[in-house]
């Protein structure tokens, strides 16, 4: 009997029930703990158990089955559907639980999406529908980022002691071997904080995973939720993931001691897995890749995302970026080349420009074709009109910028976007604050714009003056700033600017350097901005961003408030009740709909030396701590509860809905106990 010859086979619901009973017996766990949508591997099904279950299933159905069937149909629900409905193995044009070739949102609204490629126009605007952020200064949302920009906050600090002893490495003379002229940077808080169980990762594997990957999972979740796309709706969809990443401090630390390696070390440090892990966790079938073009990595990733959407290769793309500074080594090398600011600030376009300040950041934006986003009633924050990428070629040196290529990439992006220089009200510049790099960039922009008598109509923005240089994540930070500027119709001022660099001449150009928050400089018409990002190996990128179009007619507001939250978020109403905030999606609200994933805390690690191989213990996942869970609240439709809900910090701690286990509990421990509201899918 063939797989598709159904005969008198049981229905999907009956077969799923049978599979759950047998799986629970084989795993020695209550049936209530077996999630039919969770992967067999995640449930703990070994190859031996898979063979056993497959044999029992053959006997139950009285039919021959492929020995690899459990891996091809990787969950109970998928296997039951396949065996009873004859569902063919999924292709990237199909979306699993939501139906063949349809997103869950489309099923809910009665709209359909073709199962095959759905190319849009080669120039169709691309909507930015969701953003997730972790930036210096405690920034974890677009609103918080906008406040930082408008308030003129400088997020640069001295290097935290838990990273390394910057005083011991400091030397005021440049190029001193093994020393740095800078002891400043911009850093994220609690990079060790990670709820491994939330993402179905064991504590042992979490320790081996680069914090960049862990943070990317968090911001991806948040970006999708802000876009009104809960995790369940994404499963099996043609969603791509493209991540800009170039720093490998954690991997170098792990590689320094081969004896400390393990089965998760390679995947924990590989750049490709930074993207692939997101695709795996959300079950996304679009292209998944990491991009390393140094400082332009994330903007190149955005460009590739736009291309993938316009070609029909993807229906949704998560474009992300990550940069963490876990070791002083790269900074010491930059110091030797004279690229680092000895004064600890990015004085972009200023006469005091003396180099960059290294910084950290992790972020992601969810992109969709504008027509699809409007059809599905999603929040459109801004649109990407066009983008371009090119290379300097042979310049005066490998790291020397190419003015002609910078001019060309801007013009090419304008051509792709169908805009002219006169429409641009903001250029968010690469602007590292180097004495020659800034003048070269402005000269290239002047050449692209051409002579202009409309002085003061185009601002030169520099988010690096607030955050430092986020390297691989710099372009994404600039893009999100531009999105916020066109959305709000304001341009925050640059910091650390007093007097124009004497090598920069703005005469005959539309440019000005904003020193305080100002209104959009071009009244009337649509607000349009450009964002530049240049890699130190010569790969240049430019993206054109425009304010979102006004909504009119059908789809003028988010279509369905039942989008709300994924089951995983809804069933996690624990944590600090004082942090409860509105988390329910309502039509027209444009507000985040779900809380962020909970984050664990771990003790700080200090080392008396300048830097040692043991210092990165502080960057391991906080999931080892038995008292480390700090769950954020789930959505409360009626507002905060009258009294604080029980803490999920104890391990175990009795709560109203079961036993709460801290993130460090092993999978076997968690399986042997009732699942808490903190770990329920």
How would you characterize this protein structure?
With 681 residues, the protein is an alpha/beta fold. Helices cover 30% and strands 13% of the residues. It contains 23 helices and 17 strands. The strands form 4 sheets. It has an 11-stranded mixed β-sheet with strand order 5-4-6-7-1-8-15-14-9-10-12, with helices on both faces. α18 (403-417) packs across α19. It is globular. Keywords: Acyltransferase, Phosphopantetheine, Phosphoprotein, Transferase. Residues 84-126, 546-567, 587-681 are annotated as: Disordered. Residues 123-547 form the Ketosynthase family 3 (KS3) domain. InterPro entries: ACP-like_sf, Ketoacyl_synth_AS, Ketoacyl_synth_C, Ketoacyl_synth_N, PKS_assoc, PKS_Beta-ketoAc_synthase_dom, PKS_NRPS_Biosynth_Enz, PKS_PP-bd.
Fraction of helical residues = 25-40%
Please report the number of helical segments: 23
The helix-and-strand class reads alpha/beta
* SS elements, strand count: 17
The first-to-last residue Cα distance is 36 Å
Computed CA radius of gyration, to the nearest angstrom: 26 Å
Percent strand equals 5-15%
Query: What ranges have pLDDT less than 50 throughout 5 or more consecutive residues?
Result: 1-8, 92-115, 558-617, 623-681
Strand sequence of the main sheet, in spatial order? Answer: 5-4-6-7-1-8-15-14-9-10-12
Oligomer: single chain
Shape: globular
Largest sheet: 11 strands, mixed
- Average pLDDT value? 79
């Amino acid at each position: 009997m063939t797989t598709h010859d159904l005969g008198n086979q049981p229905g999907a619901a009956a077969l799923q029930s049978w599979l759950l009973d047998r799986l629970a017996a084989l795993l020695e766990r209550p049936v209530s703990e077996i999630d039919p949508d969770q992967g067999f591997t995640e449930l703990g099904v070994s190859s031996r158990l898979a063979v056993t279950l497959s044999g029992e299933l053959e006997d139950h159905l009285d039919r021959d089955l492929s020995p690899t069937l459990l891996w091809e149909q990787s969950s109970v629900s998928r296997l039951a559907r396949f065996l009873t409905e004859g569902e063919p193995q999924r292709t990237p044009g199909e979306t699993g639980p939501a139906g063949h070739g349809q997103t869950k949102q489309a099923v809910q609204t009665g709209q359909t999406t073709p199962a095959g490629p759905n190319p849009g126009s080669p120039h169709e605007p691309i909507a930015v529908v969701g953003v997730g952020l972790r930036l210096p200064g405690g920034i974890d949302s677009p609103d918080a980022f906008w406040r930082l920009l408008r308030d003129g906050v400088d997020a640069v600090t001295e290097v935290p002691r838990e990273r390394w002893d910057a005083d011991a490495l400091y030397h005021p003379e440049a190029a001193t071997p093994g020393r740095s002229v800078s002891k400043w940077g911009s850093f994220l808080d609690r990079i060790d904080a990670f709820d491994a169980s939330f993402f179905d990762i064991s504590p042992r594997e979490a320790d081996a995973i680069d914090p960049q990957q862990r943070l990317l999972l968090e911001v991806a979740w948040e970006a999708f939720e802000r876009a009104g796309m809960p995790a369940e709706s994404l499963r099996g969809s043609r969603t791509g993931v493209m991540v800009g990443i170039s720093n490998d401090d954690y991997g170098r630390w792990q590689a320094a001691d081969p004896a400390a390696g393990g089965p998760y070390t390679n995947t924990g440090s590989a750049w490709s897995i930074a993207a692939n892990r997101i695709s795996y966790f959300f079950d996304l079938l679009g292209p998944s890749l990491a991009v390393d073009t140094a400082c332009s990595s994330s903007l190149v990733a955005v460009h590739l995302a736009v291309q993938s959407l316009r070609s029909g290769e993807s229906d949704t793309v998560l474009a992300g970026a990550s940069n963490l500074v876990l070791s002083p080594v790269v900074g010491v090398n930059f110091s030797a080349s004279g690229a680092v600011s000895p004064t600890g600030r990015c004085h972009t376009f200023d006469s005091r420009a003396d180099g960059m300040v290294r910084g950290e950041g992790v972020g992601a934006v969810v992109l969709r074709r504008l027509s699809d986003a409007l059809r599905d009633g999603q929040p459109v924050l801004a649109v990407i009109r066009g983008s371009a990428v090119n290379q300097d070629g042979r310049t005066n040196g490998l790291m020397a910028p190419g003015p002609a290529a910078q001019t060309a990439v801007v013009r090419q992006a304008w051509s792709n976007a169908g805009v002219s220089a006169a429409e641009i009200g903001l250029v968010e510049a690469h602007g590292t604050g180097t004495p020659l790099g800034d003048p070269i960039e402005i000269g290239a922009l002047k050449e692209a714009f051409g002579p202009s008598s409309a002085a003061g109509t185009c601002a030169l923005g520099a988010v690096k003056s607030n955050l430092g240089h986020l390297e691989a994540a710099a372009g994404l930070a600039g893009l999100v700033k531009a999105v916020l500027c066109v959305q709000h119709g304001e341009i925050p001022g640059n910091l650390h600017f007093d007097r124009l660099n004497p090598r920069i001449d703005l005469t005959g150009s539309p440019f000005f350097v904003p020193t305080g928050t100002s209104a959009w400089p071009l009244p009337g018409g649509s607000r349009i901005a450009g964002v530049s990002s240049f890699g130190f190996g010569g790969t240049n990128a430019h993206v054109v961003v425009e304010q979102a179009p006004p909504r009119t007619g059908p789809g003028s507001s988010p279509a369905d408030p039942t989008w709300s939250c994924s089951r995983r978020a809804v069933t996690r109403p624990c944590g600090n009740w004082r942090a409860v905030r509105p988390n329910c999606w309502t039509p027209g609200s444009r507000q985040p709909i779900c809380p962020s994933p909970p984050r664990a805390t771990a003790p700080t690690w200090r080392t008396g030396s300048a830097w040692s191989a043991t210092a990165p213990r502080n960057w391991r996942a906080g999931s080892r701590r038995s008292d480390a869970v700090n769950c954020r609240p789930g959505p409360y439709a009626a507002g905060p509860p009258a009294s604080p809900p029980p803490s999920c910090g104890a391990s175990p701690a009795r709560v109203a809905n079961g036993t709460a286990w801290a993130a460090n509990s092993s999978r076997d421990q968690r399986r042997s106990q009732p699942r808490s509201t903190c770990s329920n899918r």
